[in-house]
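Our collaborator T.R. sent over the components below with a one-line note: 'Predict the complex.' Nothing else. No constraints on interfaces, no templates requested, no preferences about which chain binds where. So this is a plain run: every listed entity goes in together, and whatever single assembly comes back becomes the starting point for the next discussion.
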Amino acid sequence: MLNVVSFDEAIRITKNEFSFFDPGTEILSITECTGRVTAKDIVSRENIPPFDRSTVDGYAVLSSDTFGASEGIPSMLSVKGEILMGEEAKGFIRSGECIKISTGGMLPAGADSVVMVEYTEKMIDETCLIFKAVSPFQNVTKAGDDVKTGQKIISKGTLLTSKHVGILCALGINEVECVRKIKVGIISSGDEIVPVQKDIPFGKIRDINSHFLSALMKEKGCDALEYGIVKDNIDELYDTLQKAADECDVIMISGGSSAGNKDMTCDVIEKNGKVYYHGIAVKPGKPTIFGKLNNKAVFGLPGHPAAAYLIAKTVVTELIRFFSGETGKDFTLTAEITESISSNHGREELVPVIFENGKAQPLFFKSGLVSLLSTADGYIIVPRNKEGLLKNETVTVHLF
Amino acid sequence: MLNVVSFDEAIRITKNEFSFFDPGTEILSITECTGRVTAKDIVSRENIPPFDRSTVDGYAVLSSDTFGASEGIPSMLSVKGEILMGEEAKGFIRSGECIKISTGGMLPAGADSVVMVEYTEKMIDETCLIFKAVSPFQNVTKAGDDVKTGQKIISKGTLLTSKHVGILCALGINEVECVRKIKVGIISSGDEIVPVQKDIPFGKIRDINSHFLSALMKEKGCDALEYGIVKDNIDELYDTLQKAADECDVIMISGGSSAGNKDMTCDVIEKNGKVYYHGIAVKPGKPTIFGKLNNKAVFGLPGHPAAAYLIAKTVVTELIRFFSGETGKDFTLTAEITESISSNHGREELVPVIFENGKAQPLFFKSGLVSLLSTADGYIIVPRNKEGLLKNETVTVHLF
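Returned assembly:
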């Protein structure tokens, strides 16, 4: 009955079964687009800068007119006027001519470079002495040096952050087509679960997972829909799951700790759908279920909050990144661990760590610890083909 | 007239001048508190677990009754009933007695340990044979093992994220006192600045900085208030700045690129306040102004978007963290640089980098590049006492 898969297989199967999924897109303004994933490559409609531009105050010249110029033997050019910054250069120059230009000014037709004002002397008769030669395009930023028309500036699948807003504004792009937010439904199940409140009856447990998982999904850029607490009743769970499947793309059911509860999640999925795996060879998080109902992804997560959080952070998040097509880098830290970790051969282990002074200090799960994750900075993965990690071994830390 | 300070001095002066500032606090529900900074230590009102709890199915016993028990010579105890998970243990045991208990069940008074069911045999006459000794508290999680009543679970100044939500829910804490959001006003100034739109008149520049800085401040957990574009008119700038100072805690004015513009920012601050520095020995970002008006912090930022962004990301963000009392770790990556960087002695340099395959590739500012930041993953700081960095030197990468 149980179909246990490895951690890597779980992620592969999860994506594979939803390769058909397309969340659709929406157009967002520049003030709404951060935290969202681009649906298409963004291409520039113009050059930055839009024209050849002087980077100094001086005289726009043909560089060939200055070749050989020196303090002793200056070139002598006739001044054809002046171009200010922000003014269109309507004039042009021929050999033997120059135009006065300010920093940021548009290079006039005919000119290919600018002599800094320090190396010139304007005479009373509107001629100008040039005391230093310039090479072609010296002291000039060419049109399109920064961005060229047609250039891809942001790739499809980019998670937009504030750092992208500058270039979008610079190019006059005030709307961006982004992937629709992935909708994640969250169901808590179990007769013993009660809402978060100060005083609870003996033997009852507060509903940790609804808010815990909802906060995580919001951080991942999803819409999180909470469906509350469902009793250990197969019809009630089935109805709630059907409703969630109508409204969401992904559903997470976090069950109570009883074994009967777990089976119920499988049963409700299989009533109208299919279960692909029931158990992942990973610690913690073994009793994870994954299935499909009405073409929506359904996860049955472990009841233990830390285990549910870590599986949501890894397997579920991988599916959500896959859905939104996000291709960004996942920044990780490299560190030595401060203590040895023993681990079971044949399964992955997710170990929360504190990152301090460049070292990773592993935190060990004892039965039922819920305070642990709040103090961790991230987690490391002990590979399934290792029996543990030695003190001072170098590990990759995935930050929370 | 110019009062140029070092990068470190700038940060020190900025905080020092606002040591009096208190943003106040507000009470937020568990679903609103992520992304916010705690205003007080959060202390547990209860134990987790709330009572001594069995971690196995078996018999609750006095460990001393089992000492010496073996397959050959079992201890014989009389069974005094059963305790189920979620049920209050009303009974108690004396020496010679035991109570059947399920995983998660509450240890009855008198018992100090649990013998796993595998090492027991219940006889027809309500006696039970114990074939293996247990030590005190074996197979028991003690009350408060995870969290104790009165224990500090989250410190004042913690930026709350999803990882903290679990422990708050577990303890029934559904409201948290957080620091009020810091309000940052953003003003663009310059006759040449126009709103972000597709087509703009020749010589005009789109207002990059309003949206760019606003997006950054929102990422830093602030309320960003945009005051639009102000012409190069000292009265108009003064009126807008006064309005922003009434409504915000921090104001950023990003000027046009003209020199006259910069002086105007100083003038309007000094009309009713004080300028503490005018220039930071840092590249880029030298023409940064900092002052106080109506007891609010006012920054005059460079007109160049990348420079304005980097100063906002460093100096302004440091002030905002100081205001909210945030004490969290600032995660940085350590990497070798792929190219040498030459730098001027006597000033800090902020160099954007791409982080790829564990290496940091520096991106060099050319005049006016605005596309550069969007491709960078973060930045490194070349210290003021170094004339540059050598290829393969190890650097600290601050992520964007």
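Summary for T.R.: Chain B touches chain A through 75 residues (CB under 8 Å).
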